[in-house]
Specification:
alpha/beta, 6-stranded mixed β-sheet, disordered C terminus
C-alpha cells in the first residue's frame, strides 16, 4: 500500500486517513469520493459525496434524490482541499462524468483511476494520463488475450447483419449506463439514421445523456409498439432481456451482445448470442500496460479483475506492484440486475 497516512484498506474500501474520506466505498460511510455512476462504485447511504456533476446527477437518477446526506460537485481539473489532502478529478473515459481521483500532499501523489478506457468515445470526455507516484488501476481485462478491436469495426458488423437479415429485429444487449449511449452514438457516426428502439430500462439514462448534449438522434420506446412489426429494427435492451420472455415477441430476433467479454466465444455461446460484438468500456491489455507507464509511477496497485497477470507484468517492467484485494467491484454485469420491467 501507500504509506499508512495516505491510504489504508478497510472493509468499506480504500480509506484516506489524512483526508478522512473513502474512495468508492462499498458500504455507507461519512464521506465518499465516487469515481463514476456504475452500481459497483456508486452506492446510496453516504453522509457526503464528492464527484463530478454528471456522476452526482446519475446517482440521483438511479438511487433517488436523497441518495446521500449532502453532495458536492467538483469539475475536472479543479483542486479541493479535503482535510490535509489536495484532491482533483480527471477524465477516465469510462462513462459520462467518470473520473480518476488525484490525491496529493507534500510527500506523494496517488491516483485512483476507477474504471477507465483509452479508446475514443463520443459520449464522454477522453481519458487523461495523470502523473503520479502511485497508480491504482483496474484489471477487468488484464490478460494479454484481451485486445479490443476498434469499436467502429464492430458497429460495421452489426450493420452488415442488418442488411443481411432485413426481416429480423436485432436485439442488442448493452449495459444501461455508458455502453448503450456509446453504441447509439457510434451507430449515428456510421450513418445509421433510423429510429433506435429502447427497452424501458434504457430510457431514463438515454434521455439524461441527450439532455447533456450527447447527440443520439431519434430514440423510440418499444412500449406500445407491436413487436411483430419490428423486423429490420435495432432495439437496445439490458443483456438479461435477451433470454427473457420479453425478447420472444420479436420476429425471429438476432441476439446481439456488446461487451469486452464477447472476445471469449464460450461466453457468447452460454448466453445464446448470435452476434457477439467486442465493444468494451474498459481498457484492454495493451492500454492497461501503456497507461501504467504513461503515469510515470514507481508503484502500481491492481484492483478487480486479472490482478496477478498485470502485477507480474509491472514487476517485469521494473515497477513495484501488488494486487489490491477489494471486494464488491467488478464488471458492470451486475447492472443487468436492475429493473428490467417489460416494455
Amino acid at each position: 500500500m501507500a504509506s499508512a497516512h495516505f491510504l489504508s484498506l478497510t472493509p468499506a474500501g480504500l480509506y484516506c486517513p489524512a483526508g478522512d474520506f473513502f474512495v468508492d466505498p462499498v458500504r455507507p460511510v461519512p464521506r465518499a469520493i465516487v469515481t463514476h455512476g456504475h452500481s459497483d462504485h456508486a452506492r446510496a447511504g453516504h453522509g457526503a459525496v464528492l464527484a463530478t456533476r454528471e456522476t452526482l446527477a446519475i446517482m440521483a437518477l438511479r438511487l433517488g434524490p436523497e441518495f446521500a446526506g449532502s453532495t458536492q460537485a467538483l469539475p475536472y481539473g479543479e483542486t479541493l482541499r479535503v482535510g490535509a489532502i489536495d484532491v482533483s478529478l480527471h477524465p477516465a473515459g469510462h462513462v459520462l462524468g467518470s473520473a480518476q481521483i488525484r490525491m496529493s500532499d507534500s510527500r506523494a501523489v496517488v491516483v485512483a483511476s476507477g474504471d477507465y478506457k483509452r479508446e475514443e468515445d463520443p459520449t464522454c470526455a477522453p481519458f487523461e494520463p495523470v502523473a503520479c507516484d502511485l497508480f491504482i488501476t483496474e484489471a477487468t481485462f488484464g490478460l494479454p488475450v484481451f485486445r479490443h478491436p476498434p469499436a467502429g469495426d464492430e458497429i460495421a458488423r452489426l450493420l452488415d447483419s442488418l442488411r443481411l437479415f432485413p426481416e429480423r429485429a436485432h436485439l442488442v444487449g448493452a449495459y444501461a449506463l455508458g455502453k448503450a449511449q456509446r453504441l447509439i452514438a457510434l451507430l449515428r457516426r456510421a450513418g445509421y439514421e433510423r429510429p433506435i428502439y429502447l427497452h424501458g430500462a434504457m430510457e431514463k439514462l438515454c434521455a439524461f445523456y441527450a439532455a447533456q448534449g450527447v447527440e443520439l438522434g431519434a430514440l423510440e420506446p418499444v412500449a406500445g409498439r407491436s413487436r411483430g412489426d419490428m423486423g429490420g429494427e435495432i432495439v437496445l435492451c439490458p443483456p438479461g432481456a435477451l433470454q427473457d420472455l420479453w425478447s420472444r415477441k420479436f420476429p425471429d430476433p438476432v441476439a446481439v451482445f456488446a461487451s469486452g467479454w464477447m472476445r471469449v466465444r464460450a461466453r457468447a455461446r452460454q448466453r445464446g448470442v448470435e452476434l457477439p460484438l467486442v465493444v468494451s468500456d474498459h481498457a484492454d491489455w495493451s492500454d492497461l500496460t501503456r497507461t501504467i507507464l504513461e503515469t510515470g509511477c514507481d508503484k502500481t496497485l491492481v484492483t478487480h479483475g486479472e490482478a496477478e497477470a498485470l502485477v507480474h507484468w509491472a514487476r517485469g517492467a521494473g515497477l513495484e506492484a501488488e494486487p489490491l484485494h477489494l471486494l464488491g467491484y467488478g464488471d458492470e454485469e451486475a447492472e443487468t440486475a436492475e429493473a428490467e420491467a417489460s416494455s
